[in-house]
Amino acid sequence: ASSIRLRSYALRENYPDAAMTGDLERPENLFAHVMRRALARNASDIHVTPAETETLVRLRVDGRLQTDISISAQTAAEFVSYIKVLSNLDIAEKRAPQDGNIDTNVNGLEVSLRVATVPTIWGEHVTLRILSQTRETKQLDTLDNLGFHPRQLKLFEEALETPDGVVILSGPTGSGKTTTLYAALRQLAKPGDLHLVSIEDPVEKPVAGVTQIKVDARQERVSFEKALRSVLRHDPDVVMIGEIRDGETAQTALRSALTGHLVLTTLHTNSAPGILTRLVDLGVPPYLVASTLRLAVAQRLLRRPCRECMTWETADAATCEKYGWDAANPPKIPCARGCAYCGNTGYNGRTAIYEMLPVNDEVRKMLLNGESEGDIYRWLKASAPDLTLRGDALAKVLEGETTLEEYRATVVEELELTSNH
After folding, report:
1. In the prediction, which pLDDT does 206 show?
2. Distance CA 366, CA 357 (A)
3. What's the mean per-residue pLDDT of the chain?
4. What angle do CA 149, 150, 154 make, to 5 degrees?
5. Is the bond leading into 50 cis (omega within 30 degrees of zero)?
6. How far apart are CA 418 and CA 42, in angstroms?
7. Which of 133, 177, 287, 362 has a Cα at 20 to 30 A from 103?
8. If we measure between CA atoms, which residue out of 414, 421, 364, 408 comes closest to residue 387?
């Protein structure tokens, strides 16, 4: 009986009736319905996408967009206006992008949403980023639960224990960088004897023991660089900067590490070695990067195969040759299938993979000699293949934590990376 109830629940959650009922034509009911669906599916974003004859409400689940329901143009116009009222936006302004926030309660969960609107040829497109869910915070609060392998975790924790220096995370938008930084901040805040300050845009969730500062997105009053200069006058031990966006912020951040501060931040690059070359491209002197950077980390999120329907298959000879596995004793690798529990996607949830480049004497020498991102990557792959994104991803494939298809779709192969340099 319990199995039947579970199957019924899975079908109901993953295959809702796409037809709009009269009840859902009311914008407040539609908003509540969409929010419940988004939280039930652990979505990270909600997209209201207008088209010529209909408007689609889509959810980003495990990094992929899924169409949830289709609504009429009239219902969509009322729905968008309702969202704009909740987020204190101008409902009369439909020709310019707007940004706002919503704090709401869904089935007892406190949820914060970041709202962005943009005009399109068919109407306004609205994106709601789900910033915080109280039920998920405990699961991702600690570094132990973020998918680090023991060697990676040891390197990361050692970097956090240094009294000064810079730790930089990189990766595309939505790769989990902020979650990793928050877990690091929580670990540093546990003893209660450090002054921790974060500068964010926006502040995604409160962290106990951390002074969190919101940057003005329009940069009229508080930019990252201005906030950082001010914070350094408040005697912080640890400073977290949400993102390095320009050379001025980068130089201020790295110079603050010279004066006895531990700085945690993010930067948009494709790889851990790319962090070093990107900082130099931003105008930071190579000697400053070499003397302050302690650890460069790149990360990605890969979907986990659904435990209800995944199967294991023996890798063929060509796969073994490509990924360096023993063809005489080929490993079993997971394959995603699809069932009612995962919405027929074959995946449920995500895991993180990491690339770590500890900045030691050898790396400093390469940086000061002007060697390229590809040169540094080849050195990392030769000296510590398990610390590359490729090595971590393939290890997680063999553990059943992701699939080769996900790896190929998400990670740039090292041949592509090095061929560009």
Report:
1. 83
2. 13
3. 89
4. 120
5. no
6. 36
7. 177
8. 414
Spatial contact of 350 and 393, defined as CB atoms under 8 Å apart: no
Three-class secondary structure assignment of 136-202:
HHCCCCCHHHCCCCHHHHHHHHHHHHCCCEEEEEECCCCCCHHHHHHHHHHHHHCCCCCCEEEEECC
Structure tokens at 174: 């939505």
C-alpha distance across the termini of the chain, in Å: 60
DSSP 239: E
Helix and strand numbers, DSSP H then E, in the chain: 16, 15
Q: Is the pTM above the cut of 0.70?
A: yes
Task: Say whether pLDDT at 2 is over 60.
Answer: no
Residue 29 CA, chain-centre distance (Å), reads: 30
- Strands laid side by side in the 64-71 sheet: 64-71, 55-61, 45-50, 123-133, 109-120, 98-106
Measure CA 60 to chain center.
13
Query: Average pLDDT of 253-280?
Result: 94
How far is it, in rounded angstroms, from Cα 300 to Cα 175? 5
Q: Are 356 and 155 in contact (CB under 8 A)?
A: yes
- CA pair distance 256, 165, nearest whole angstrom: 8
Reduced to 3 states (helix: H, G, I; strand: E, B; else coil), residue 241 is: strand
Q: How far, in Å, CA of 172 to CA of 266, rounded?
A: 10
Q: Quick check: 15 pLDDT over 80? A: no
Coil, strand, or helix at residue 120?
strand
Output the DSSP codes for 346-366.
Answer: SEEEEEEEEEEEE--HHHHHH
103 Cα distance to chain centroid: 21
Residue 355: left if φ>0, alpha if ψ -120 to 50, beta else—which one?
beta
